[in-house]
Design a protein that fits this description.
CATH class: Alpha Beta
Helix content: 40-55%
Structural class: alpha/beta
Order of helices and strands: HHHEEEEEEHEHEHEHEEHEHEHEHHH
CATH superfamily: Aldolase class I
Strand order of the largest sheet: 3-4-7-8-9-10-13-14
Largest sheet: 8 strands, parallel, barrel
Number of strands: 14
Oligomer: single chain
CATH architecture: Alpha-Beta Barrel
Strand content: 15-25%
Number of domains: 1
């Protein structure tokens, strides 16, 4: 354990955990933003947390990833940290989820720690400033970002928006972010809305994607875009195998380029939730890893290598990321793991990748993925 890791786990984290979980989240976002805006802290942050090596880089379509470890959606909902994450050791960032209309989200409390299990329960309810404001901010900061920008969009948290209105809601957000993003993520699985409904029904997804593709073609023509921006679909941890297969079939028939697995796992256990005053929520963190690995493996067995799989959910150690790659992921994302293990986690994952490549004589990240899928971690 390095001095920085020791300091975080034995000193900083215990102090932070004395405070409300959502308050710590907000303080950390603005703390990172302020540190990045100051030259000296930015240089120190980058020197401590970043690592670069040729075997980390990965290209998908025309998108170049300097390393395969990303910051997951849910941390920077409004694009405030772009481009600060480049100094935090990440290879890409996912903003959002963003919705067509601004939302204050669900009533508090809506975020709780299960410290003994290295997990979180959240029912934030898609609180964000709305796609117009976020898109304007991303347009201003995009040129200074050296990393791929993923933008996750979801249905506005409003029970009155359903059926065709829900599709139009998605399409408006898509229209606003498509010219800005390097990849667009359709979050069809957020369980923390008032109506609790999603587009994980394959028939509903088919209707959504057909309209999204029409909007995509119109946007590409309007902005004279030569290449299409990859569109990915994000599904939840509670999707069953048969539904996952049907969802993938719908994705493949509608020019979707990849899938994120997984979103949080919806729970309503009174034994878990009663102490926090939260009626329901999504579980993230260490307990989610086994389920995420299973769905990544199932999805990868159904698609070719040109279908991007992003593994997220339960990664708290470098070996967890290696297992994700071994099960079929091309990229991984972390968030809850950062809270419990600290900001060194992305660098530790990347260092393990470099170590494996050097020990096995692997020349690039593609060879690393191929090696892992035929050898146990």
């Amino acid at each position: 354990m390095t001095h920085m890791e020791f300091s975080y786990e034995r000193v900083i984290r215990p102090l932070l955990f004395l405070l409300d979980a959502e308050l710590v989240h907000l303080l950390s976002v603005w703390g990172i933003k302020i540190a990045y805006d100051l030259v000296l802290p930015r240089i120190i942050l980058s020197s401590l947390l970043t690592v670069r090596h040729s075997c980390l880089s990965f290209r998908f379509n025309d998108v170049y990833f300097p390393n395969p470890v990303g910051l997951a959606a849910g941390y920077d909902k409004n694009g405030i940290l772009v481009p600060a994450v480049e100094s935090m050791g990440f290879g890409f960032i996912e903003i959002g989820s963003v919705t067509a209309l601004p939302s204050i989200g669900n009533p508090r409390p809506r975020l709780a720690r299960l410290a003994r299990h290295e997990a979180l329960i959240n029912r934030m309810g898609l609180n964000n400033q709305g796609v117009d404001r976020v898109a304007a901010r991303l347009s201003r900061s995009k040129n200074s970002l050296g990393l791929p920008l993923m933008v996750s969009i979801a249905k506005t948290n409003d029970v009155r928006i359903h059926g065709n209105k829900a599709i139009l809601d998605y399409c408006y957000s898509f229209q606003r972010v498509y010219p800005i993003a390097d990849l667009v993520i359709l979050n069809i699985s957020c369980p923390n809305t008032k109506d609790g409904k999603t587009f994980e029904d394959p028939n509903h997804l088919e209707s959504l994607l057909s309209r999204i593709l029409m909007v995509r073609d119109d946007v590409m023509m309007e902005f004279q875009m030569r290449n299409d921006v990859p569109i990915l679909v994000k599904v939840g941890a509670n999707v069953n195998s048969s539904t996952l297969k049907r969802l993938i079939d719908v994705c493949l028939s509608n020019e979707i380029k990849g899938m994120e697995l997984t979103n949080t796992y919806p729970i309503k256990s009174e034994n878990i939730l009663r102490n926090f005053g939260i009626p329901s929520g999504g579980l993230s963190g260490k307990p989610l890893l086994k389920r995420s690995l299973q769905l990544v493996r199932e999805a990868s067995s159904l698609v070719g290598d040109d279908f991007l799989i992003v593994g997220v959910g339960g990664i708290t150690r470098p070996v967890d990321a290696l297992k994700m790659f071994q099960h079929g992921a091309h990229l991984v994302q972390v968030l809850t793991g950062l809270i419990y293990k600290g900001p060194m986690l992305p660098k530790k994952i990347n260092n393990i990748i470099i170590q494996v490549c050097q020990e096995q004589g692997l020349r690039n990240f593609r060879e690393f993925l191929e090696f892992l899928r035929f050898n146990k971690v």
